[in-house]
């Protein structure tokens, strides 16, 4: 698989104005025990009431809320610039130099900011020490359950992937306890590699190929895994407790973490808040944060496919989740009402025409054999891409899949009027053969006459989008609420 580090390295961390909070970050469904030191776990940002509150009556609570908001404003300003002086932060966030200095001192002591040499002449104010986001200390841990793989990674506050672990794993119809125990092993491996670089995850977000509703920690349904009402958050917490060495004992292999050692009892992975989200949602957030788009791309529909097809709608720069958290199930939009049966119980769903296995079957290839001969995520997509050059049956199957996608997408575009449709994951790799069918259906069926050529974009984030979105959602939750990080979580 392509190294996700290269993707993360090349892309800016922040895409939005400082202080803009994305309630679309999935941390609000964190399932782990709350962090008492902070009052709320990472990701659990200010409530809507706090956001909309008229400031301030002079109470301790409102002062704490104000302090949290101002710390977040400063942190977002630094994230947005990469490197910035205190004076420039003050000018940007509209606070006094003295107030910003106090906030910066607190962020430095929390290990969230670091100082990076003198600012260059020409910046606002006297030359001073530039501020950067710390590349040590608090970090985000992302994990992913795929139909046939598992993955975990640690990103620093700058969004750079610093540790990762990956395993092929036939997860379909395996007991969730076993799948999550395997995932826990990868999470521990990635965290240990991160610890050796001085990084300490403050939360975990897991991408799953299924429906995650409003109940924290529960995967309501993942048809392609055979999961129904699986308490994945608590199961992963328990599996992490089993996978970690007991507190205070040396790590299994001390060479992995020469200076940082094993997680302390305070920093144990099984004690972290665990968020769950649908892989398509996290892929769309990765597109928003890491996709390299202009800041004015605020409304888009992101579509990706593995065996299933997932979509997510970003509205005003935030994820649109719907009333029950189920928005974006494009794969189960009917394309032909009397078509083949779908694992969801309906017939003729888009997934039965444009999912990987459906395309392989339409091309006369056996999905099971293709998976065995081209294992791992991307294996079947690579097979289709290779064959498309020479095999007319594969090209025809992909064109038909593109038409089915275009048909389903035209309904979504007519309802939601996005600026763009972005093809991610395997769809990006197959886009040369899919796009003609997609665009021809959109041209025929989008009725508002504002659907320009080129409004279907191909993602550059790659197949690791959901994993990167998961890890970066933890980082975003820290930027939104810096007080969620406890001082003792800093590197010594
Ligand atoms: Zn279906």
Automatic annotation (TrEMBL):
Low complexity composition-biased segments: 250-267
Gene3D superfamilies in the cross-refs: 3.30.420.40, Winged helix-like DNA-binding domain superfamily/Winged helix DNA-binding domain (1.10.10.10)
Pfam families named in the record: ROK
Source species, domain of life: Bacteria
Family stated for the protein in its record: Belongs to the ROK (NagC/XylR) family.
Signal peptide, first to last residue: none
Protein name, per record: ROK family transcriptional regulator
Region ranges (Disordered): 1-64, 243-272
